[in-house]
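Checklist before submission:
- one chain only
- standard amino acids only
- sequence pasted in full

Submission:
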Amino acid sequence: DVQLVESGGGLVQPGGSLRLSCAASGFTFGNSDMSWVRQAPGKGLEWVSSSYSSGSTAYADSVKGRFTISRDNAKNTLYLQLNSLKTEDTAMYYCQNDNYLRRGQGTQVTVSS
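Returned file contents:
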């Protein structure tokens, strides 16, 4: 059974940083394309970043240069480093297995002074 458990969210001031983690199980993590998506209050899901099994990565224009996606295949863990956070980054962040289209329960990121 595919399981994804996100952690690392919290309350941070504008300009601050956070590191999100996603612990994965129930599938072959190293062979899977993985993404981070987010949902702000009252809005739809927004794609943030992807890490492909090939080793390549991709970012939404809104986070390019500020967020960094990475993965540790030995630990079955996906990460998202969030730097230079803005109030508009406030959202629930979800880890997603792109092959199974499954997401975890999410971790809340709130950027506020």
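Reviewer check: Residues 12 and 30 are 31 Å apart (CA to CA).
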